[in-house]
Amino acid sequence: MTTVLGCIADDFTGATDLAGLLARSGVQVSLRIGVPTEPPKDTGPFEVIALKSRTALVAEAVAETRAALAWLKAAGAQRFFWKYCSTFDSTAEGNIGPVAEALMADLGTDQTIYCPAFPENGRAIFMGNLFVGQQPLAESPMKDHPLTPMRDSNLMRLLAPQVTQAVGLADRLTVAQGAEALRAKLEALRAQGTAHVVVDAVANADLEIIAQACRNMPLMTGGSAVAMPLPDLYLADGTLSADAPKVPAPQVAADTVILSGSCSAMTNAQVAAYLATGAPAYQLDPLSLAQTGSADVLAWLAAQDLTAAPLIYATADPDSVKAAQAQLGVAEAGALIEKTLADCAVAARDAGARRFIVAGGETSGAVTQALDVTRLDIGVEIAAGVPWTFCTSAGQQIALTLKSGNFGAEGFFDDAQKRLG
Ligand code: ADP
């Protein structure tokens, strides 16, 4: 069917997060990994294209995003959403501003909004200043991010050097007056030539108002949360027909494999909780992998009963990770484990696994690539920001969940299995 909203996300887990929030409304959401090489076919009402452009060179990010826009336009979309991180991860060069200006130029629109707020996750904007929990952005751990250190909390000041046109603010006092007042404020700013408008939001109710006021703008930009109300609004105003396809729930055999390459504190707790259930598990040791390769783990996997949902994990505490990295190098240790887990995913699929539970952002990238998955249909949510997805791999229908490091509760690996029934 014709796409109602075309979304572009600047990284993979951000795209899954957005897709999951849109699917909460029960509508079908499709996620594409990278700009599809084929013209649109079998598109859904909500299409999300995942790019890896957050820290790419500005020109590359702009070119990739424009290609994504062209594909979504060809799918019939007339409204678009540019999704970036709720901590506004960017540098003085970009890529949030330059990408937004390029999209605006291609769409022939003279104004857009910026709303990275995600109140459920503690991201709030007040008077144009972004807070992470109770801390201003520039005092939060984001000040030390290795690629995009955020040293200012004021979104107007962060955005201004990234764009060529005027930046303004629609503050919480306006938002609190409702959608009409916000629309009037945006119009007044437009009349003054303000192309880029930061919009305050501290609670989900603010996001509802913003989405209502801005739902017919050609381009909205923000974190995932401000897009969450859009499907229900489009259903209510008839933009999306009530018989639009719903969240899919195909029958997928219960043979399962769990692959964990994340070393975050939460994934460590999730692995420990799963080991405590007595489930079959194999721990990957990067040093022995470097010496003897993956034959041992593949032999172990081949001997497993996949209905018992075996776990293969490299997840380790920070000291063990540092020790492995000191011996092998950071990138080499990571690449070796990602390759091994990706090989395990393919071997498990060929042995009949149809449900894959994967922990780790980079690990998820490696596994989806190895399984040659390019389109995922978003299914039920397991934990906030972590849905089950459905896709095909080597001609087989499979279910896949991709969990970024800190997401999910301690029982995630069991929760995921139960959620699919
Ligand atoms: P997260 O979402 O928690 O950041 P990622 O999968 O993105 O997880 O990143 C974890 C990285 O650490 C991957 O590159 C993975 O291969 C690597 N890794 C996993 N286990 C170990 C280990 N025991 N020693 C060294 N590196 C590891």
Throw out a few tags for this protein.
Molybdenum Cofactor Biosythetic Enzyme, Chain A; 421 residues; 21% strand; Rossmann fold; globular; binds adenosine-5'-diphosphate; 2 domains; alpha/beta
Uncertain regions spanning at least 5 consecutive residues:
none
Identify the CATH architecture of the largest domain.
Answer: 3-Layer(aba) Sandwich
Oligomer: single chain
**Main pleated sheet:** 15 strands, mixed
The CATH H-level homologous superfamily of the largest domain: Putative sugar-binding, N-terminal domain
Give every kind of bound small molecule, once each. Answer: adenosine-5'-diphosphate
Q: Choose one word for the global shape.
A: globular
Neighbour order of strands in the largest sheet: 9-10-5-11-4-1-3-2-16-17-18-15-12-14-13
Average per-residue pLDDT, rounded, comes to: 95
Count of DSSP H/I helices: 15
Total of domains: 2
Number of E-type strands: 18
Q: In percent, how much strand structure appears in the residues?
A: 15-25%
End-to-end gap? 29 Å
CATH fold description of the largest domain: Rossmann fold
Kindly state the percentage of residues in helix: 25-40%
CATH class call of the largest domain: Alpha Beta
Using the CA coordinates, give the radius of gyration.
22 Å
Structural class: alpha/beta
Structure characterization notes:
With 421 residues, this protein is of the alpha/beta class. 38% of the residues lie in helices and 21% in strands. A hairpin with a 2-residue loop joins strand 6 (123-126) and strand 7 (129-132). Helix 6 crosses helix 7 (204-214) and helix 11 (295-302) packs parallel to helix 13. The two termini are 29 Å apart. The structure holds adenosine-5'-diphosphate. Adenosine-5'-diphosphate binds next to helix 12, helix 13 and helix 14.
